[in-house]
Amino acid sequence: MKKLINNVDSVVTDALTGLAAAHPALRVDVENKIVFRAAGPRPGKVGLVSGGGSGHEPLHGGFVGYGMLDAACPGEVFTSPVPDQMIEATKGVDGGAGVLHIVKNYTGDVLNFEMAAELCGDEGVEVVSVLVNDDVAVRDSLYTAGRRGTGATLFVEKIAGALAETGAPLGEVARVAREVNERSRSFGVALSACTVPAAGKPTFELGESEIELGIGIHGEPGRTRAAHGPARELVRVAMDAIHEDLPLSGEVLVLVNGMGGTPLLELYIAFAEVAAYLREKGASPARVLVGNYVTSLDMQGFSVTTCALTEELTRLWDAPVETPALRWGR
Amino acid sequence: MKKLINNVDSVVTDALTGLAAAHPALRVDVENKIVFRAAGPRPGKVGLVSGGGSGHEPLHGGFVGYGMLDAACPGEVFTSPVPDQMIEATKGVDGGAGVLHIVKNYTGDVLNFEMAAELCGDEGVEVVSVLVNDDVAVRDSLYTAGRRGTGATLFVEKIAGALAETGAPLGEVARVAREVNERSRSFGVALSACTVPAAGKPTFELGESEIELGIGIHGEPGRTRAAHGPARELVRVAMDAIHEDLPLSGEVLVLVNGMGGTPLLELYIAFAEVAAYLREKGASPARVLVGNYVTSLDMQGFSVTTCALTEELTRLWDAPVETPALRWGR
Amino acid sequence: MDVQFFVTWLEEVASVVQTQRDHLTQLDAAIGDADHGANLDRGFTAVRQALADTPPDTPGAALVLAGSTLIRRVGGASGPLYGTAFRQMGKTLGDAPEVSLAELSTALDAALAGVQKLGAAVEGDKTMVDALAPAVRALAGAVQDGAKPADAIAAAAEAAAEGARATIPLQARKGRASYLGSRSAGHEDPGAASTALILGALRTAGSR
Amino acid sequence: MDVQFFVTWLEEVASVVQTQRDHLTQLDAAIGDADHGANLDRGFTAVRQALADTPPDTPGAALVLAGSTLIRRVGGASGPLYGTAFRQMGKTLGDAPEVSLAELSTALDAALAGVQKLGAAVEGDKTMVDALAPAVRALAGAVQDGAKPADAIAAAAEAAAEGARATIPLQARKGRASYLGSRSAGHEDPGAASTALILGALRTAGSR
Ligand SMILES: Nc1ncnc2c1ncn2[C@@H]1O[C@H](COP(=O)(O)OP(=O)(O)O)[C@@H](O)[C@H]1O
Ligand SMILES: Nc1ncnc2c1ncn2[C@@H]1O[C@H](COP(=O)(O)OP(=O)(O)O)[C@@H](O)[C@H]1O
Ligand SMILES: [Mg+2]
Ligand SMILES: [Mg+2]
Ligand SMILES: [Mg+2]
Ligand SMILES: [Mg+2]
Questions:
Q1: Which of A231, A261, C89, D26 has a CA positioned 20 to 30 A from the CA of residue A239?
Q2: Is the pTM of this model over 0.90?
Q3: What fold characterizes domain A184-314?
Q4: Pairing of strands A47-54, A71-77
């Protein structure tokens, strides 16, 4: 394992030190591992808090700022943060209008955020939690922990963040967050595994012509191993899985997301195929992001996330945002 | 080699098809491989054209848009584009005030841009070329093709682009472009080689504890092979090389750039060390970019680029920009 | 069993988890996300520190302190689950300075109940419950049979180890491993393996 | 040598470059950027197509067409350099329908001059010049000695091959390989190797 780190145990805090030094618009509590907006809470605005294991950068710390999150709680690599972080973050962003927790559906994230929400409630901060579970590779059944939260998290954070900025009440912000999640679907493909610093070696081995279909964002193997093929075919597998679950039509918000080790050049090749697929189904990629947004350390591969737009969602997506990783309109 | 591509020979055009579909603000001539602003040339504004081999995305196509380039000419992977592309691009962006060619200092880029400039001149379009050569790993001597153009290209394109947007004449735009280049220095480190699709295997082999110091952005080996070390030490090697060449002081514009395969988490770790180094020298990172901007396909590693700011350069850096990969202020 | 017994147990857990850190992480790499060893090592190192910083007076206090520390330091699925397990044990033991085998058995039952309430896993889901539940049963049975403390604890540890091994052929229905569907079969569950280590440490603590 | 001779030569180059594409790319991978084979293959495939699309009438026209096509299709350092080389050869031959060995020699000299004017490389810099210059000298010498065309061409091809091999120990002073400093020594220059292939193809063309 060759990584650009100082020490396996200080990966997250060292990165937070860098994040703090790079972005004066953020206030980073490195010791407690919380990323805040430097400006602090705005009275009357609903606060948005998210968090999860590190290793998915820019998610979530890179999405803290105007029009998106108020705070992020990064855990250790691939390990959900602890309730203390979330409680501190929640209290720190409460402007009196309550706080929305945006939680990716993983047992660890759910349990820790639940504990935090309960304790925040005891202390008089109103908290509503929204679960993101967009990954169609996992069947939501008695036989699983439910669908994973992946790329749609970005959509939820952006759109709910935009609505919160208008002064909308907590119930409304939670409603739109849930709506975004319900309208979103994802599917991921890995061309290589990733290496967790503390593990020191790749989480699985793939042959020269093998890939994993239906992967999450934690370096775990996918649902099935398959033969590598042209981008066109891999994209079709992903899009078919999405389309089967929620037929694609109309205007779609699309994220073609790199897992961290795949060059942008290749992500655009994948996007060309996604756009062609959408046209084939009579849908159109009305809003598009192509890049590394919800990553899995150095994994090579991609995921596609779609969200069926409404007029309201499009307007909120287009609203100004100013964070380290997503910025427009200001 | 496992890549997210359809075909080794269609990598660049397939990616351009995706770029076109993703960004309605661009007009992409896929056949001739030219990326234009959709809005076309603005009368009286100096046009900015750059280009070079593909494989460095988002450079250059991702930097076409308001406040930056007017057109980009991507060549094949790591192969400079041909004069035809540059001529077409130059004529296509000429708003009557002449065109600036921003050329990274590689024999191929220089020769092809020279031929293009000559032919454009013959056809009555005024062209001035600016050479970017910021890489301190290469001594500029009779024994080399001169210093390579790397990360500073982004600075030159952003800052000259901002000045051009104000309606400044060609001479002025060229002057500020040269000034940015003269004030900029870079140094790169590879933790792994990259794989050119047409070559099918990594351009060099590195052992589990070896790295390459002083690499460029074309997958070539660096100046020396060294033992891998903590991020702190690798950054120090890079910063020492820069500081020795042009002592760091005052306000500095800093790019900590990923080579394509290194996660953002690690780039922030590197930036923390860069910031500490600057403080040690009495300098400050007044403006900062951390991310994958001038890449080398899937190479793991990073480069640091610094530019000694002036008031004028800071103002132009802060000016609005709206491109696929760099956006603020609008 | 006095507070010293429980402190010794927790310290022994910390040391065995440290030794087995990579093993647990590799188990998690196969069907999870390769952090279970690091998670527990971070957690129990913090427990050891907490015990040293504010030495508890009673078994209950030691266990509650351990549980709270795990919740505050581990994260992931195992942090809240193990944290709750130790807290429930501690709360069940209350302020008593000495704990009988029967009381320990009741406490371990409460730990299991806490884990199941939080995580909703049943036996056979391929989780830590698959090691914890048989251990609880074994301990209760031994108490019922009037077994000597050392033998009763050995039986519980044995049952946990057996339960962990028995997760190998199972398909996971809870936690990350469930995402793998049938591919999760053929691997030992990391949480069940760590539960076996934790209960194994009880035996070591008893023999000190 | 009539236009057919030159068309045959260029087609032979296209086919040998295609066969040697990976070899040239691997040479470039060692001290450059792993694209020389792909570059020339793309270029000469286009040359073959251009010759088929608009068959030239004279040797000069064939070579100018080849050179222009290379400039328009190759890119990189080798595109303008080889493009200029062929264009200079063609221009030197003018409209003549037949070319003597002496005229070929003069044309090849013009090619070398064009490459050196553009790229400013001298012999020993570890570039295509190291194969081209000795070939030019060998051909001129053979003409002077009144050698038969086949022998003269063989001598030029031999000299180019020898020149390419001789680049191995050199340290590059031009092109990408120069960035490597002393590490460029020990590898054959890809451009010198392709020049040897191009001049080797002249021999094959002559024997048809
Ligand atoms: N719902 C659950 N109930 C009981 N135990 C669970 C549950 N979900 C996961 N676990 C246990 O947690 C273990 C994983 O812990 P760990 O790797 O530390 O957390 P994470 O899965 O968040 O990375 C699994 O091996 C399993 O034994
Ligand atoms: N200044 C120069 N003069 C002559 N030949 C050169 C010069 N620079 C490079 N070359 C030749 O070009 C070859 C490389 O060609 P190619 O790989 O196609 O282009 P690039 O270096 O742009 O990738 C080198 O091996 C060398 O022979
Ligand atoms: Mg985890
Ligand atoms: Mg090249
Ligand atoms: Mg885990
Ligand atoms: Mg090359």
A1: A261
A2: yes
A3: Hypothetical Protein Tm841; Chain: A;domain 3 (3.30.1180)
A4: parallel
